[in-house]
Structure to design on (994 residues):
């Protein structure tokens, strides 16, 4: 540092700064003027939106003053600034209702993660070697512009793709508008557990291409087919809030809950009855129940609309699906199926839920349509205690995934990889944002090989992971607590919801918010891109986009647009029960013929690979994105109590037959690959099923996740559900071999604890 | 006015989602150890969810029970402490004075609920993770015993606020981090001395029970047992 700069900064920061500098690192010499006026020791709660998954929960962020080393105006230094200290649900928010989930609570460790990318980077070594050098934002933006400009020319021969986690809200709209300036540009949203099958099925059955919202609080009977709705699926916070009331709080009523799945999930552990139907036969069981109901004249087959018409034989009373006829396939005794049907008939309102593994088979569409038909027969659609579809906010483009898909500019990562490798669609430039398909797709999809062929990759993500490691240029985003953030929750509320929040704190590092960066790029590119994105900042775009909401009756009333915008920020969003918003069902666009029963197809012959393989969404890591958070690594997964690793769940009796003990290292082999992890003996899994939690086995994802555990996705066969092209991640068979002794890290548990222990006395 | 703070946990609502655990870590500056230390049973979770299996496949059930310091009226941890680090405060809480603690670990041996955690090493927060630390809660060093405080910092803050406004603390106004975060509202916190408080009403439930009640520790964490529905059969 030059003497003159030192004096200038000392003058600004006062004597304290000079003193703080004595004998310390140079960076502590600088002390900037505080960014905001905060009273030391006094906490303020600011509004926020959780970005840990797509549910869009409204949050509150507890902000207190602290000393942080930051990067400002080209220099490092210590500043007194507001820092996020605790996250909690926003009590007024219709989805989260003052609550969060375990992964949401850990959102703090994303912002403060030591492995965040702190400044723009440029690749120096070979692609994928992970060698980068720091560059300035000017250099980074110039370099990206140089690659964007040729593609922005009309009728460019080659094009770009934007590979991203599914983006909701205005952030999604912005990316779409950005891409509209490039001919042939493709949007490629990617998520491992993607629910595309259920959305498509809901369009066919009910006319809504959307995930459903469940009114558990007013329900008397819930039968769930494989959906981990209290843990990781759909909108778990909203569903848990409803579940509390399902069980208690209504005098004299305690709703019954039945879970159908071959491996007990966190959700299944709470069921009154747990039914371990064979994998891929959940739809048969749903129709077996419907068969009994129709036979006994509960409801009318004709009254079920298009939902019933999707199933072959529905009008005739499903003659092929009698409890006796399906029993040998489902493994569920005919008496059980009949009894479940009788219980459902007696306890109205009743509701059927489907999600997760049952839809991740090659026959997932059949299963989803079967459960939808059962719901229609139970008359649960759009009724209290049933399922409904969250109204969409009255905005011109709500930016949700399904709206984009109708425009036909969306590709799956599988298609993109195929097209790149076959040379069908030359992709000159790949923009990458917080999606990690190299980690979370089966090797048979050849995503890594395809991405390696793309001439230039620019990543906006916050972390280096298996995919962003391939980037040539990294322009890191702010964290969600440092940015304007918004979401348009697809489900979880009975009313239309927009979640919006201003930054809860200033950025820690030399990063730039992705929306503002894209607006800046559009300005510099000019032409169509600039016309599509005329705003100076993302805040301005958000304000303009949400302004029409002021004219609807909703949670915010204001005398003018400025007051409206201020109140929306304070409240953390806008929501409305306005009846005119209730969405009208679209006519089922798909004129597909009624579906006959389809058997699930499994990769790997049963003789050689005797076990069904079930990877599942992990409670702490979900699909693996949270594996870099130390709180999540040390959070014991509740059923296994396992921490800091991966395990192979195997039925205790099966293990005894194979002379496998708790902690033995197993090699799990499919036709497509092998992984190794220690055995975890469990009574809550079918004898012919092997299960592994997803999320670990990262090669490169920061100090807490790298080189830890095993990744079950890497042995999956490239099976897809044919109508949507979604990965059929439950459609692989495996065998197991004991190869030595492994290491399990358990909080409690182990075989010695089993038995009928009394919880309380 | 002194209170008798207590917590009711409804096991029929608890789903084992572990949100309480993450909320507790964030609120109370609980250190993560690492895989090696966790394997030796040294992971620190002031509240953790215990899982009990019942039965064999296919007639198997799992039960969840969040276990935290039971804030016993007759606490076995208190009389064994040679330095009075573990003591009973005027609100009836089992308080732990960190700067009196000399790390004998007698209290952890005496606790039948294994709710006390010993710092075997100094806590490590890789920079800038230390910025998330809650300034209202002290950070514990190696050699110190720690445990759930019922979020005493939140109790004190609420009491000061009520006093400043010249009023009593309202029922439900104090919410420990776990209670605040619980998505199914399985956890309720309040004053047992107030017969009309929600905890007092729930504590009178037919389902109310305490953990290892035969030991006579008289816990102030009260569990409501899980029910079962059998449909119409």
């Amino acid at each position: 540092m030059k003497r003159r700069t030192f004096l200038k900064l000392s003058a600004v920061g006062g004597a304290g700064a000079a003193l703080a500098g004595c004998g310390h690192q140079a960076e502590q010499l600088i002390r900037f003027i505080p960014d905001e006026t905060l009273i030391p020791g006094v906490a303020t709660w600011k509004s926020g939106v959780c970005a840990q998954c797509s549910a869009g929960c409204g949050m509150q962020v507890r902000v207190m003053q602290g000393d942080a080393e930051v990067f400002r105006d080209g220099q490092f230094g210590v500043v007194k600034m507001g820092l996020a200290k605790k996250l909690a649900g926003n009590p007024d928010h219709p989805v989260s209702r003052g609550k969060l989930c375990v992964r949401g609570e850990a959102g703090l460790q994303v912002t403060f993660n030591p492995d965040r990318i702190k400044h723009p980077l440029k690749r120096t070594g070979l692609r994928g070697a992970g060698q980068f050098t720091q560059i300035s934002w000017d250099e980074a933006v110039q370099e990206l512009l140089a690659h964007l400009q040729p593609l922005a020319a009309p009728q460019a021969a080659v094009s770009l793709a934007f590979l991203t986690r599914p983006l909701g809200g205005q952030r999604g709209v912005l990316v779409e508008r950005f891409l509209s300036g490039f001919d042939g540009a493709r949007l490629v949203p990617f998520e491992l557990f993607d629910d595309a099958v259920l959305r498509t099925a809901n369009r066919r059955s009910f006319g809504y291409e959307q995930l459903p919202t469940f009114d558990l609080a007013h329900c008397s009977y819930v039968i769930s087919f494989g959906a981990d709705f209290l843990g990781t699926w759909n909108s778990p916070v909203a569903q848990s809030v409803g579940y509390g009331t399902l069980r208690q709080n209504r005098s004299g009523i305690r709703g019954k809950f039945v879970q159908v799945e071959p491996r007990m999930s966190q959700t299944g552990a709470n069921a009154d009855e747990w039914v371990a139907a064979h994998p891929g036969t959940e739809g048969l069981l749903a129709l077996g129940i419907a068969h009994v109901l129709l036979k006994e004249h509960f409801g009318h087959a004709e009254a079920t609309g298009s939902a019933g018409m999707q199933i072959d034989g529905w009008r005739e009373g499903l003659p092929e699906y009698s409890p006796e006829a399906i029993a040998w396939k489902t493994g569920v005794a005919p008496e059980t199926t009949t009894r479940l049907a009788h219980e459902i008939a007696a306890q109205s309102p009743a509701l059927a839920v489907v999600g997760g593994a049952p839809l991740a088979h090659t026959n997932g569409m059949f299963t989803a349509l079967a459960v939808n038909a059962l719901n229609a027969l139970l008359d649960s659609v759009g009724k209290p205690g049933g399922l409904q579809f969250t109204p969409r906010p009255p905005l011109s483009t709500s930016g949700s995934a399904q709206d984009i898909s109708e425009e036909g500019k969306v590709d799956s990562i599988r298609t993109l990889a195929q097209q790149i490798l076959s040379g069908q669609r030359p992709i000159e430039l790949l923009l990458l944002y917080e999606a990690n398909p190299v980690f979370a797709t089966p090797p048979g999809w050849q995503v890594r090989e395809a991405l390696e062929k793309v001439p230039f990759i620019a990543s906006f993500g916050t972390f280096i992971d298996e995919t962003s490691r391939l980037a040539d240029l990294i322009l890191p985003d702010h964290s969600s607590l440092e940015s304007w953030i918004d979401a348009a929750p697809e489900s979880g509320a009975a009313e239309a919801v927009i979640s919006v929040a201003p930054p809860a704190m200033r950025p820690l590092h030399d990063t730039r918010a992705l929306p503002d960066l894209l607006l800046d790029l559009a300005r510099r590119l000019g032409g169509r891109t600039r016309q599509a994105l005329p705003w100076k900042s993302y805040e301005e775009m958000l304000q303009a986009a949400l302004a029409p909401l002021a004219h609807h009756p909703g949670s915010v009333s204001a005398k003018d647009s400025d007051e409206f915008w201020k109140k929306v920020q304070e409240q953390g969003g806008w929501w409305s029960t306005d009846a005119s918003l209730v969405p009208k069902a679209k006519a089922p666009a798909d004129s597909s013929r009624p579906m006959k029963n389809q058997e699930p197809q499994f990769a790997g012959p049963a003789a050689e690979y005797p076990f069904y393989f079930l990877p599942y969404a992990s409670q702490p890591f979900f699909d693996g994105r949270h594996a870099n958070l130390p709180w999540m690594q040390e959070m014991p997964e509740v059923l296994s109590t396992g921490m800091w690793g991966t395990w192979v769940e195997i039925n205790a009796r099966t293990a005894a037959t194979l002379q496998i003990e708790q902690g033995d290292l197993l090699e799990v082999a499919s036709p497509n690959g092998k992984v190794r992890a220690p055995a975890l003996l469990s009574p809550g899994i079918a004898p012919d099923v092997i299960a592994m939690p997803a999320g670990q086995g990262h090669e490169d994802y920061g100090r807490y996740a790298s080189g830890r555990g095993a990744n079950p996705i890497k042995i999956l066969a490239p099976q897809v559900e044919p109508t949507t092209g979604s990965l059929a991640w439950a459609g692989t068979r495996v065998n197991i071999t004991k190869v030595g002794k492994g290491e399990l890290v358990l909080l409690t548990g182990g075989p010695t604890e089993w038995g009928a222990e009394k919880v309380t006395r | 006015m002194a209170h008798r703070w207590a917590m009711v946990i409804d096991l029929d609502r608890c789903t084992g989602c572990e949100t309480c655990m993450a909320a507790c870590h964030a609120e109370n500056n609980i250190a993560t150890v690492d895989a090696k230390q966790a394997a030796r049973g040294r992971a620190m979770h002031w509240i953790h969810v215990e899982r009990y299996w019942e039965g064999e496949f296919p007639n198997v059930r799992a039960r969840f029970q969040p276990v935290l310091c039971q804030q016993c009226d007759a606490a076995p941890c208190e009389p064994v402490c040679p330095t009075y680090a573990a003591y009973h405060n005027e609100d009836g809480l089992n308080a732990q004075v960190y700067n009196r603690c000399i790390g004998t670990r007698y209290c952890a041996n005496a606790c039948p609920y294994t709710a006390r955690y010993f710092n075997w090493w100094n806590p490590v927060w890789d920079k800038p993770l230390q910025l998330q630390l809650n300034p209202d809660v002290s950070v514990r060093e190696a050699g110190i015993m720690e445990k759930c405080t019922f979020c005493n910092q939140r109790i004190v803050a609420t009491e000061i606020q009520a006093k400043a406004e010249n009023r009593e603390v309202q029922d439900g106004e104090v919410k420990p981090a776990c209670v605040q975060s619980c998505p199914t509202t399985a956890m309720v916190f309040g004053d047992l001395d107030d017969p009309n408080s929600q905890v007092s009403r729930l504590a009178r439930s037919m389902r109310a029970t305490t953990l290892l009640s035969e030991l006579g520790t008289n816990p102030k964490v009260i569990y409501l047992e899980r029910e079962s529905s059998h449909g119409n059969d």
